[in-house]
Each structure stands twice: as structure tokens, then as C-alpha cells.
């Protein structure tokens, strides 16, 4: 009798769980796009799911036995080769958009030809229960058709209006300015005109972009599903925006704001010389970094002179993430380092 009661008690508190086979695809060759979602892949694998991720920045943690990573870091070269041309065209928004979109389509095309990716596509015995994919360009979405599974979109920042509208989300161009325009709050008449013109531009180039994507869908997946259809079939969209920091806008139930919830990124201690430099910043310090794609070493000489002269006049110390070991005419209050643990720097407090 007592044994029966014990069994009944155990059954009453037992929960049934199932593991899933999950395919992740973050094709953008940018550390900031990749590192944000690394805690997601780590946690899913630790919870028993079999996770395969297409990434340009693998975690490379051998203890994560349920995590398989396909290293696409070779696609960085495509972006690096085009980045300076894109930056030098910054005064022409239309040209920048066209160059950027074409470059990232070239990146997607290159990645889908990767031998391990081709093996994944061609293996008839391969299957996945869910696709989690960066919701920017469409070619990677066709994995959901290949494996007959639903997909969830991820964005490392807020979504553009054209993305929102592709699955029926309200996106009025002047009520909710496109994040790509950098216009916030109350808008002037001129700003509204700019927003409308930008919207018309996006509408005009959409057929060209969708044409590239449709061609890649056929070349790599032999799939003729219209791009518009597959973009609309998204099940959920996780957007890295925080309602507290962004203007109010209605969101569909399928759009989830995840701003600040995935920032559990393992950090490395600051190097001794960097730590000592910051410890000596009695009046505080400035951290200057252009990220991982734009290189400080490529700043034109004239602009570099302006930056150095500005830093020299500051009463603060300046920590600069700079790719080379030496910088001529470096002010005494500036310290350069080829790599900096940014999370540690931003979390450091300087006390007088």
C-alpha cells in the first residue's frame, strides 16, 4: 500500500519533456549579430535539444555536446572587401542601400555553397523540428521548406518596416519611422517627407531584391515558393528592442521584444595594462570602438588627425580599440588595444 502511494506521488510530480532537433542560421558576418544569440544556442543545447547552428563566430565549447556548429567565418572576406566602398558612399543613401543589400546577398550565396551546408541540404535522412533564423534576407528561410518545419525569426536590433509588413504587421512610414532612418520622436514636415521618400525607395528596390532571393532559392534548394509567401509564414519574431527605450507602437502577438534578456555573454578579465590604465582614470574615461567590421586603422588620415586632436583636448583618459600595435602621434591620455573585453569595460566603474 505504501509503495503504491509512493508511486502515485512520483507520477503526480513527474513532467514529460521532449527534446527537439533545432537548426539555427545567423548568416550576417558580424560579431555583434552573432554574440547576442550565443547564450540562446548554449541554453537550448544544455536543456537537451540537439542544436545545429550556421554561424560566422562559433562558440567552440567542447563541453556543449548537443551543439554542432558549421563555421562560416570565411564569408567575412566578402564583407571586408566591400565595406570601404559602402562607407565611402555614405553620402548617397540610395547607393549605400543597394551596395549593402547586394553584398549580403553575395554573402548568403557563398555560405549556401559551403560544403557542410550543402551536405545538410542534400542529406535526405536529415531532419529538423524547428528553424531559428536571422530575419533579414530570405534565402536561409528556405531551410524551413527543405525540412518541412516552422521557423522563428531573430533580429539583433529593431526591425525595418519592410520586414514588419512582410508578415502583416502594421508599419506606417511616418507614425512608426523606419529604424534604418534614425528618426525618432516627434517628426518635422521635412523628416516626414524623407520618411515617405525612403519608403518609396524601399518599395522600388523590393522587386530587384526579391528577384535575387528567388534565384538563390532555386539554385540552392530547387524551391519555387515565392519569397513573399515564405516570409509571411514566420511563426514568431524575436526583436532585440526594449519598449522602455523605443517609441510606442502596436505589436502583433507574434512579435516578442527581447531587449536585454540575452546579455549573459561570458567575459574575459581585462588585461593587466588595460586595467591599470582605467584604474588611473580619476576623472572617468572614454571608450572608443568602431566595432569589429569597421576598422579604426582604415580611418582616412585627415579624419584621424581630427580624432587625435579632439582626444588630446579631453580631460579624460581614452581607451581605443585599435587594430594595430602602434599609432603615430598618439596623445598621452589615449591607450590603444587590439582587443578589449567590451562587457568588462562597460561594466567598470571609475572612482575618484
From TrEMBL:
It comes from the Eukaryota. Transmembrane segments: none annotated. Pfam families: UDPGT. The keyword Glycosyltransferase applies. Residues 1-19 form the signal peptide. Keywords: Glycosyltransferase, Signal, Transferase. GO terms for molecular function: UDP-glycosyltransferase activity. PANTHER family: EG:EG0003.4 PROTEIN-RELATED. Belongs to the UDP-glycosyltransferase family. This is Uncharacterized protein. The lineage of its organism: Eukaryota, Metazoa, Ecdysozoa, Arthropoda, Hexapoda.
